Amino acid sequence: MRISVIGCGYLGAVHAACMAKLGHDVVGIDVDENKIADLAAGHAPFFEPGLENLLLEVQETGRLTFTSDMSRAHGSDVHFICVGTPQKKGENAADMTYVDAATQALLPYLHSGDLVVGKSTVPVGTAARLAEMVQAHEPGAHLAWNPEFLREGHAVKDTLTPDRFVYGVPGGSEDHAAVAVLDEVYATPLGMGTQRLVADYATAELVKAAANSFLATKISFINAMAEVCEATGADVTVLADAIGLDDRIGRKFLNAGIGFGGGCLPKDIRAFMARAGELGADQALTFLREVDAINMRRRSRTVELARDLCGGTLMGQRITVLGAAFKPDSDDVRDSPALSIAAQLQLQGAVVTVSDPQSLGNAARRFPELNYVANTAEALNNADAVLLLTEWKEYRDLDPFETGTLVKQMRILDGRNVLDLQKWRAAGWSIRGIGRP
Ligand code: UGA
After folding, report:
1. Which end is more exposed in the chain, N or C (fewer Cβ atoms within 10 Å of the end residue's Cβ)?
2. Which atom of ligand 1 is nearest to the CA of 148?
């Protein structure tokens, strides 16, 4: 099929490359010329394992091109809207500027029979509104809502073989023309057994908001348990293993630590609360305020633990923070708990050095006042305390004996509960986890 993908950020760049991999003819369109130049040269403008190889592979076939010229959408059968919906400045709601602008810019190039497919994460009600815009311009065109569930760091796999597809179409009818079109787009993964659900617009939009809210709630639940564990001397990692064995609960997303960050969960739960408020259903989601509060409290708690580890004061302490990205295998520092803790420590008088395998450029743009060192051994040199805040494999695999020879004082805080406390203690370290004795 001929496909246009509008917006080539995390979602769009990966989606465009994966659609070409599935055999479609794809044009990726973005207003950012630098991003387009990078992608056209086969470079991913962000770190995502496997994406660069995929870009090179599909570009060689001639099935994938990138442009900043929206008129190239002309002639595509399916147009995916993949632009961002960041949090509005000073408000909880989502900023719809990019979604609206992208749809508006696409209208002149739509033909009868075309399908516009929204993938961006949007407040419920957006699809119905955009469908009106599309049909007012081209009555023969349709709009479907097809939320995306990919995780950064696993984006290629999650796009090519997702857990499920959700198609939002008017009335939620299986017979709607858009269903057959999307089935053709996703014929390969559907053929491999991926489940597909057809829903009305509002349900499809809510599936995404509900999924991210559930994940955020799961993380905050275990972090709340970590607080109770800290108050009682219990171990939250054992508790998570034990409750996780109940398959109604499950062990995934029950890792206590410094909390969730990134460009999705924090802003999505806030936008969901804001939208529920507009709809008069705010009471239903007040618990998400608590989910958010538990999450933010993890950051201040980690600063307190670091202060304890340093003997009661942060002033003048040389602290090495391992990890700046919001999670491993990503260079994304949007709302990164690691980076926000590093900045807090610095504000409170510590001398902070941050290291990360991929995200130092992005981190330095966000917090230029911090000291950044790429090489781990160099970053650890002479440290009074070490904080492991993003669980990159390289940090999980650190050897306590070797690491001990680099630092000034053998003190470490494991903000992700990934180190073997006994092993580190046996090597002479003073070590703290989160919610662990
Ligand atoms: C999240 C969802 O997992 C995706 O399904 C969704 O498509 C995406 O948002 C989106 O809306 O686009 P992502 O932001 O890539 O994906 O990151 P996650 O893997 O969900 O992790 C989010 C944060 O939670 C990270 O900071 C991670 O360190 C933290 N986390 C995760 C925990 O603190 N504990 C856990 O047990 C799991």
Report:
1. C
2. 7
- pTM to 2 decimal places: 0.96
Question: One of 8, 82, 229, 264 is an active-site residue; which one?
Answer: 264
2-199: CATH superfamily:
NAD(P)-binding Rossmann-like Domain (3.40.50.720)
Distance 391 CA to ligand 1 centre (A): 13
Query: What is the atom index within ligand 1 of the atom nearest the CA of 155?
Result: 15
How far is the centre of ligand 1, averaged over its atoms, from the C-alpha of 38 (Å)? Answer: 26
Domain 200-437 has CATH 2.40.128.20: no
pLDDT digits (tens, 9 = 90+) for 68-77: 999 999 999 9
The rounded Å distance from CA 326 to ligand 1 centre is 9
pLDDT in tens, 284-319: 999 999 999 999 999 999 999 999 999 999 999 999
Interval 142-196: pLDDT, tens: 999 999 999 999 999 999 999 999 999 999 999 999 999 999 999 999 999 999 9
Give a three-class secondary structure readout of 332-383.
CCCCCHHHHHHHHHHHCCCEEEEECCCCHHHHHHHCCCCEECCCHHHHHCCC
Query: Where, residue-wise, is CATH 3.40.50.720 in the chain?
Result: 2-199, 200-437
